[in-house]
Write a structure and sequence with these properties.
Blueprint lengths: L3 H12 L9 E6 L6 E4 L3 H5 L3 H5 L5 H4 L2 H16 L4 E3 L3 E4 L5 E13 L2 E11 L1 H22 L3 E7 L4 E4 L1 H6 L5 H4 L4 H4 L3 H17 L3 E9 L2 E13 L5 E9 L15 H17 L3 E6 L4 E4 L1 H7 L3 H4 L10 H16 L4 E8 L6 E12 L5 E10 L1 H23 L3 E6 L4 E4 L1 H7 L3 H4 L10 H17 L1 E10 L5 E10 L5 E8 L1 H45 L5 H29 L6 E4 H18 L3 E5 L5 E4 L1 H22 L6 E9 L2 E8 L6 H4 L19 H12 L3 E11 L2 E13 H6 L1
Parallel strand pairs: 23-25
Antiparallel strand pairs: 1-2, 1-6, 3-5, 4-5, 5-6, 7-8, 7-11, 9-10, 10-11, 12-13, 12-16, 14-15, 15-16, 17-18, 17-21, 19-20, 20-21, 22-24, 25-26, 26-28, 27-28
Helix pairs in contact: 6-11, 19-20, 19-21, 21-22, 22-24
Length: 761
């Protein structure tokens, strides 16, 4: 243990004139409750400004001069070293107040004096380290704003030595691995960090290429993120120190999430601080976004190359200056206002600006994020800004707005009724056409529901359709009856679609009341024609039944009836009855008004139509020629197609009967595939339709027949059904055709079904 002799020697040293010429002061404290000073060298005045006498007389208490934030630590250091029986120790630098009230940083080397095993005194050698400490603090400030900068970058960042060992990584990089802690990755290589050996080998290979070429490299590659493969855009570049010595490689990788957290472990040594500043400066200069840091007064502290392009000046020309030195006063005031808001906010703030780049004069629409930069003591140091060019995004947004305006124009001016409802069928919005259709003012209609305006018999069907829409996303050609405000019943055809948000439904509605009236009239006409067809078809089987039954009775009466005659007669009667039953079924199927769409063969619909008309055609001596090998299946209501085909054939029959000799009456029905479409043609030999009226035959109520023979609504319905519901193209023209070496001339109805249109339906 150090004895009292050292204490005596130290007391002599304090009074030595030569020692008092040095910059190091000596002081001896007693180990009492207040650590009272026993002796202190005269040169203490050089450090603190207080005289030797001030301390000896206790006018000035040394502990009172220690900064309140440091005093507790200083006392703790003394006690800890005593408890460990140390002979010597050095205080961490602390602040002490001079005679002018200014705090200086000092460092003290302490020798512990023991007397009989107990601490009696402390000998301290005090030196002023204010300049050294302030320089270190300044370097720490530089690192703080560079570290803040890295913490706000949306990318993975790493630094490797020349052997591809990790020197530093940010937290985002660590989070992408299974290690999680950046400090635990330092010293490891890619094979230690990544589980995929193939990927690790590629990363090391890329490092070697960058080191060998001395050039940066930008690649798109796969990176493991928690054992999940993700694609990143990776930039790798060589890193040099101030002496141009190659240190290793720097890399950063952008992932698709645009989330970034960068954290590197700071080193306490001054030399390491310089190295970290070099690394961070390299990263900043490589960023594609404009980036800058200002102090609390708005003075620029640093910026990157992209920001240099904005102001048209080098970093050295920007640092130390203000916005007003580069842009007009109004814009500078706007920048300053946003800076102040960011420094007052606990979260990053963003704004959108249109910026003109001084380098070449081009203008960009930018999204700027600003966040406050804080020191370790919690004080605000300044503000960090990152600005990204979003001009293309802005153009896209403007396009969306334009499309929205176009939609609103269509919505408001459409002749069709358009409405938007929620999933409970309540109206959310509608256009004027919809209001006019239902005879409600808009403000009144929006208080009602779609179900409420549906007639009772169709309400359940409408509810089920709205449920179905959630699964199928759309329904087309949905028909129902609605009740208007004036209690009028109207028929509507609706196309219903579920909007992308899955919370609203779009309805496009047509008033088809007139069409339904025309359809019903057309149906009645068709039924009349069908009854005529049935009458023709029933004549022969009824005659057979009458003849057979009369013959059996006659032969029975005269005892001539044999078993064979009886059996043959009963079979004949049974076959005729079955034929009559089939014609009744066909008629029932035709008139039952089934509106269910199903997969329907065009060829089968034609065959069914022929079956209905065949007897009538034969009774009128009309030869039917059928060539329907080509076929197509579509989603359709079969009876609608049959009604269309039946109407065309009956029109051809009427024309042949009134204008053509019996031996020259032909109807030709053909199908063929043309360019992925199906063409159905129905032609006759009735001499054709006059040129002056052929263009009008699809007009409602236009007819060339006597009023007793036609209403003029059939072909209009045919055209509307085929065009509107089944996207078919219907044309009529006159043409000649050859049959059995004879040439005939007449009308041809051509119906073209398009496969693409039908599939879209």
């Amino acid at each position: 243990m150090t004895n009292i002799k050292l204490l005596t020697a130290s007391l002599e040293l304090i009074e030595n004139e030569f020692f008092n010429t040095l910059t190091v002061s000596a002081v001896i404290w007693k180990n009492d409750e207040n650590y009272n000073i026993q002796a202190i060298s005269k040169n203490i005045s050089k450090i603190l400004g207080f005289s030797q006498e001030n301390f000896i007389s206790k006018k000035t208490i040394y502990s009172d001069l220690i900064h309140p934030d440091d005093l507790k630590r200083v006392i703790s250091e003394v006690k800890n070293n005593i408890s460990e029986k140390k002979l010597e120790f050095t205080h961490e630098p602390y602040r002490i107040r001079n005679n002018e009230g200014i705090y200086k940083w000092i460092k003290i080397a302490v020798t512990v004096i023991y007397d009989k095993g107990e601490v009696s005194h402390f000998i301290g050698y005090i030196s002023d380290c204010t300049l050294e400490k302030e320089l270190l603090i300044e370097k720490e400030k530089d690192l703080i704003y560079y570290q803040t900068l890295i913490d706000n970058l949306p990318m993975l960042i790493w630094l490797k030595d020349k052997n591809s060992n990790f020197l530093a990584v940010n937290q985002s990089f660590a989070n992408a691995t299974t290690i999680n802690e950046p400090s635990l990755i330092v010293g490891k290589n890619d094979f230690d960090v990544w589980s995929d050996e193939k990927l690790a080998k590629k990363y090391v290979h890329d490092d070697k290429l960058v080191l060998k070429s001395g050039k940066s490299k930008l690649v798109k590659e796969k990176i493991l993120d928690k054992d999940q493969i993700k694609w990143f855009e990776t930039f790798k570049a060589p890193v040099y120190n101030k002496e141009k010595k190659l240190l290793g490689t720097l890399g950063y990788a952008k992932d698709i999430t645009n989330k970034f957290i960068i954290e590197e472990k700071m080193k306490s040594q001054y030399e390491q601080l310089e190295l970290e500043k070099t690394k961070l400066s390299t990263i900043v200069s490589s960023l594609p976004d404009a980036l800058w840091i200002k102090d609390a007064d708005g003075k620029y502290l640093t910026c990157n190359k992209r920001f240099e392009d904005l102001y048209g000046a080098k970093q050295s020309e920007i640092v130390g200056k203000f916005d007003k030195d580069f842009v007009d006063e109004k814009l500078a005031e706007s920048f300053r206002e946003n800076d102040i808001k960011a420094m007052k906010s606990d979260v990053p703030l963003s704004n959108y600006e249109e910026l003109t780049y001084s380098k070449d004069g081009h203008t960009e629409y930018s999204h700027t994020i600003k966040t406050k930069v804080m020191l370790n003591d919690g004080s605000i140091y300044g503000v960090l800004g990152i600005s990204r060019d979003i001009s293309e995004i802005k153009k896209y947004q403007d396009k969306i707005i334009e499309q929205k305006e176009e939609f609103e124009t269509i919505f408001n001016f459409s002749k069709d009724g358009i409405a938007i409802i929620d999933l409970e069928s309540n109206f959310l919005n509608c256009n004027e056409s919809y209001c006019e259709m239902l005879e409600y003012p808009k403000e009144e209609l929006l208080k009602k529901s779609c179900i409420e305006l549906t007639v009772s018999e169709d309400k359940e069907k409408t509810k089920e359709s709205l449920k179905k829409i959630i699964n199928d996303n759309f329904i087309i050609n949905f028909e129902k009856k609605c009740l208007t405000k004036n209690n009028n019943i109207i028929y509507v055809n609706m196309s219903v679609s579920l909007l992308p948000d899955k919370k609203r439904i779009l309805i496009v509605t047509k008033n088809i009341s007139d069409m339904k009236f025309i359809e019903e009239q057309s149906k009645l006409v068709s039924m009349g024609e069908m009854i005529g067809n049935i009458a023709h078809q029933w004549r022969q089987p009824l005659s057979i039944i009458s003849t057979a039954s009369t013959g059996v009775l006659f032969q029975k009466e005269y005892g001539l009836l044999t078993d064979k005659v009886l059996i043959d007669s009963m079979n004949s009667i049974n076959n005729s009855a079955q034929y009559l039953s089939k014609t009744i079924d066909d008629f029932r199927n035709f008139i039952k008004n089934d509106k269910t769409e199903e997969i329907t063969s065009i060829k089968d619909a034609i065959a069914f139509t022929i079956n209905l008309t065949e007897a009538s055609l034969k009774n009128n001596y009309i030869n039917l020629i059928v060539n329907c090998e080509a076929d197509m299946t579509i989603h359709a209501i079969k009876n609608e197609l049959v009604q269309c085909f039946l109407n065309i054939i009956n029109n051809a029959k009427d024309a042949l009967v009134t204008s053509t000799k019996e031996e020259n009456r032909f109807i030709v029905i053909e199908t063929k595939e043309v360019k992925n479409n199906l063409e159905l043609s129905i032609k006759d030999s009735a001499g054709g339709i006059p040129d002056e009226i052929i263009g009008r035959i699809f007009e409602p109520y236009f007819t060339t027949k006597h009023k007793s023979l036609g209403t003029g609504i059939g072909l209009s319905i045919v055209n509307k059904i085929l065009r509107d519901k089944y996207c078919a193209n219907v044309t009529v023209y006159n043409e000649s055709f050859t049959y059995n070496d004879c040439v005939y001339y007449g009308a041809c109805f051509k119906i073209t079904f398009n496969k693409e249109d039908l599939s879209n339906e």
